Amino acid sequence: SWAHGGMELSVIAGVRVGDQLSELLLGAARKTWGSASASVSINETLSIVAGGGTYPINPTQGFPGGRFLSLGVRVSDPLRGLKHRTQAMKSDADSGGVAATINSVSAKVADTQTVPELVVSRILPDSITLRISAPGAERVEITGDFTGWDPIALAPDSDGSWTRSFALRPGQYQMNVRVNAGQWTVPRSLLSMVDEFGGKVGLLIIE
């Protein structure tokens, strides 16, 4: 998968081996398949999605595999984007966003120095632990699509880091972090990307 700005591209490929039963039942010998899909954002709530490729044999439902093309429209929840932007605007106001705009060069240097680092570890089979390095902080919070974009406070450790565990399945998630009720930022260890609402979020990949 690849994303940039308002565009997303995903490619899937697969292969099946030792599947003689499907050939006997369905008379089909397809053992490989692949597909690609792309989406382009039109505005904050609408995206055009197109895809095409092949799909595999499904002996349980009697499908011998085949080809497909699709074209559709994806509608996002406008309230989610409004909530996300409102939180960002509030945090900017609380942290002196006007002063930071006037002195933008100093603000950029400060942001680079204070952006926290995220470490992901799996302690239990069904959960992961997010650890934010922020020595001297009084409060550290994260927000993301796995929290419903609600701020979640992390617990402090004696070594200056802040942690919290989440039950997350393998996949891709979006998240940000803020320290001491400041501005929402992307942790240094995550890829920064632009979401469908034009804001910057970090791409968290759980394997």
Can you describe this structure?
This protein is of the alpha+beta class and 207 residues long. Helices cover 20% and strands 44% of the residues. The strands form three sheets. A five-stranded antiparallel sheet has the order 1-2-3-4-5, with no helix packed on it.
The largest sheet, given as strand count, sense and whether it forms a barrel, is:
5 strands, antiparallel
Q: Low-confidence parts lasting 5 or more residues at pLDDT below 50?
A: 97-113
Strand content: 35-45%
Q: What's the SSE pattern?
A: EEHEEEHHHEEEEEEEEE
Give the strand order, joined by hyphens, for the main sheet. 1-2-3-4-5
**Average pLDDT for all residues:** 76
Q: Summarize the amount of helix as a percent range.
A: 10-25%
* Terminal CA distance: 14 Å
Strands, total number: 14
The gross shape turns out to be globular
Q: Structural class given helices, strands, pairing? A: alpha+beta
Continuous helix count: 4
- Kindly provide the radius of gyration, computed on alpha-carbon positions and rounded to a whole number of angstroms: 22 Å
How would you concisely characterize the structure shown here?
This protein is of the alpha+beta class and 207 residues long. It is built from four helices and 14 strands.
Chain-wise SSE layout:
Blueprint: E1 2-4, E2 7-15, H1 20-26, E3 32-41, E4 46-55, E5 66-75, H2 78-94, H3 97-102, H4 104-114, E6 117-124, E7 127-133, E8 140-144, E9 152-153, E10 155-156, E11 161-166, E12 171-179, E13 191-194, E14 200-206
Antiparallel strand pairs: 1-2, 2-3, 3-4, 4-5, 6-7, 7-11, 8-9, 8-12, 10-11, 12-14, 13-14
